[in-house]
Design goal:
The chain has 328 residues and is mainly α. The protein has two domains: 213 residues, Rossmann fold; 84 residues, Orthogonal Bundle (Tyrosyl-Transfer RNA Synthetase). It has 14 helices and five strands. The strands form two sheets. The chain has a three-stranded parallel sheet, sandwiched between helices. The radius of gyration is 22 Å and the shape is elongated. The structure holds tryptophan.
Length: 328
Amino acid sequence: MKRIFSGMQPTGQLHLGNYFGALKNWVQLQDSYECFYGIVDLHALTTAYDSSDTVADAVIAVAADWLSAGLDPEKSVLFIQSHVQEHAELHLILSMITPIPWLERVPTYKEKQQELAGKDLSTYGFLGYPVLQTADIILYKAEVVPVGEDQVPHIELAREVTRRFNNYYGNIFPEPQTLLSSSPKLRGTDGRKMSKSYGNSIFMAEDPAELDRKVRKMMTDPRRKRRSDPGGPEDCPVFDLHKVFTEPEKREEVAHLCRTAGWGCLDCKQVLLDRMHPVMDPMKRRRDELLMHPDRILAVLHQGADRARRVARQTMEQVRAAIGLLKA
Ligand code: TRP
């Protein structure tokens, strides 16, 4: 089986965008690949260096969502990045061979600085974010990296840095390939991109009553002011959810009833809710059970780190020898 690495930042409770954009795909990949999945807390510090005390809780919240969604520690290696110190060491070594202009050219570098304009992101660590990501991947010699569209430039950079390493020190690493998880973009309850910072998220582990409330209040196509106004499903964030929850035949009917003003938005939302609850309520229940024992979640992650470390140590022995560092 080919090996996969992917990582997720500890943002806290995950929303449906995280689930359909990444997690659901990761769960499916477990049966056809050897999967290493890391909660990348060191990456979180590139922006949360001034609020680092929030990271630990966010890690546990993400881990609970991972397990409740079906990531299985029997099948995959699930761990916290900072528990495997080899990530930091390989990051350091890769930083020696990564030209700064390569990093300045990564589009997310300037984009993120603009997005978080109030925050000082002129740090060494933030510039090196994609170098740390490269280390994550090649530490396990992963050949395949499942990511969303936004991460493609990072994987491109990872390939370039890997090639450079192999040129200087010998062919140690496979060049990682992007596996695009192409899922429809989900807009949040206000019609903007679903994002925790906008407060427009529907969480994976939403309380059932709260789920009803959020969906019923959700914005719809603004052209449908009255029940008699025809709507455009493509312009409606509720229809985004139908795309991931509703079976194709029914979805066609939903779209038709919208375009012809054949029903009201609340009718449409009820059809959606009838499909969301059977998927989401069991995840919510599993998550609640897991969070009654955070120590068990941590134990799973510690076991994962032990497995990851065994691979990471071997890689680093090879790396040190290839560079010619003296043995300790
Ligand atoms: N940068 C990725 C994100 O924000 C997270 C990540 C860190 C990652 N290391 C990785 C993804 C390695 C894939 C492979 O989504």
